[in-house]
TrEMBL record:
It comes from Potamilus streckersoni. GO terms for cellular component: nucleus. InterPro entries: Cyt_trans-like, Euk_NMN_adenylyltrnsfrase, NadD/NMNAT, NMNAT_euk, Rossmann-like_a/b/a_fold. Its cofactor is Mg(2+); Zn(2+). GO terms for molecular function: ATP binding; nicotinamide-nucleotide adenylyltransferase activity; nicotinate-nucleotide adenylyltransferase activity. Gene3D superfamilies: HUPs. This is Nicotinamide-nucleotide adenylyltransferase. Residues 110-134, 364-395 are annotated as: Disordered. Residues 364-378 have a biased composition (Polar residues). One of its GO terms (biological process) is NAD+ biosynthetic process.
Amino acid sequence: MSSVTKVVLLACGSFNPITNMHLRMFELARDALNRTGRYNVIAGIISPVCDAYGKKELVPTKHRCAMISLALKTAKWIRLDTWECEQPLWTETARVLSHFRVELENQMNTSITETPNKKRRKNRKIDEEIDRGPCPNHHDNDQVSLKLLCGGDLLESFGTPGLWKDEDIEDIVRNYGLVCITRGGTDPKKFIYESDVLSKYQENIFIVTEWITNEISATKIRRAMRRGESVKYLLQDSVIDYIRENQLYGIPDNKYLDYTLPSPDQPNIMPMDCLEDVPNDTHPIDLEIDINDSYKKNKQIENLTRTCNIPRCISNPRSSPGPKICQNVEIEPTLSPKHLSFDETSNPASPGKHLGNLDMVGPSSTRKAADISTSNSPKRMLDGEEDETYHVGSPKHVPCMTDLGSLVRRVRNVRVGSTKETRVFAFTTETCV
Ligand SMILES: Nc1ncnc2c1ncn2[C@@H]1O[C@H](COP(=O)(O)OP(=O)(O)OP(=O)(O)O)[C@@H](O)[C@H]1O
Ligand SMILES: NC(=O)c1ccc[n+]([C@@H]2O[C@H](COP(=O)(O)O)[C@@H](O)[C@H]2O)c1
């Protein structure tokens, strides 16, 4: 009678932040292994890399672990393990596997020979983890196989010269085994074919094809957040909330992270069709906004929206009650010191003129002020003149749906300055976000 091998899946990586695909990897692997009838996946472990790994944009362990814990709230059979990320130095993956194998063996042995209390003292940390979810070998003495769970890119990184020791690669595929989830741009079968050592142990390597292909990557998610784009449905909501609350990944002004979806019966939500009600020739506004003083900035923005006479607008659902018209309108989420860079060569001697280039990072429909310096005269903006060249290439409005609903920005010209001398024009097109 063929026996069924119990399997624990270990995923190592940055988890910066943990994405829905990281969670899905476990589901895909468990399905595939269980389907063979030879394996029974009983637990999953996520082991985030330590800060000393030093990867670009890696946020501190404390945050990555907190996000993993939040994301795992609904994943009953997967748990976070902090051993690796608590190490002062980076630990090679083969050592991490070896650590967990010893831990699993300890648990097996202690469960046979010791009382639960003794075991608890000896392996207190592991047991704390056990208490939070199912754990291998807790109830029986069967052999458990520990396997490294990874994506196709990690497998192919075996081929990067100097990154992995040959003996580590052999140790991993020979003594543990790999479960590899296909990922866009990788071809694990071909990679195995081309590697002598991987071919030798290929019965220990499981390629799981993800047919519902996706390109979720933590790098792309960080990029999207930096650019003020929505990442909803790519990360768990709780993780998005955590990122917002802790201002991670340089996204202090990301409107998508800052709002909750207003309820449909909220009276001042602007439907898409009201775009037609908005007059097309809003007069440009000349206002100086002090970006270093956020209270003043918000007040000024509020006044600005009043002056604009925006007919209807979406309001921040978390804002204080009060007159609804034009309050709390998010005009330009990119107007923050973080996202503004001033051209040092600007001429402070001519206040009121366009003195430098303002680089704005924001929704694609927002024009870069750098472009404006060539296509739109600052004098005209100051004088409130319309510049036809501006209208030609710029979207009047680009209808788009977001989880916020929709919002028309009516602000044309906003003067933004960090000091009196460094005045720069920010130029927002009429945009639907
Ligand atoms: N979309 C994906 N498909 C398959 N595997 C993935 C996917 N995203 C991540 N993985 C795998 O998850 C593990 C941990 O990945 P990691 O934390 O490095 O995520 P990442 O998205 O690759 O991050 P980054 O973009 O910051 O390099 C790796 O084995 C990686 O291959
Ligand atoms: N020689 C090694 O053991 C080795 C080399 C490169 C990456 N890794 C691991 O692979 C994972 C890859 O993570 P990233 O894709 O986020 O860099 C990390 O857990 C890292 O520790 C291990």
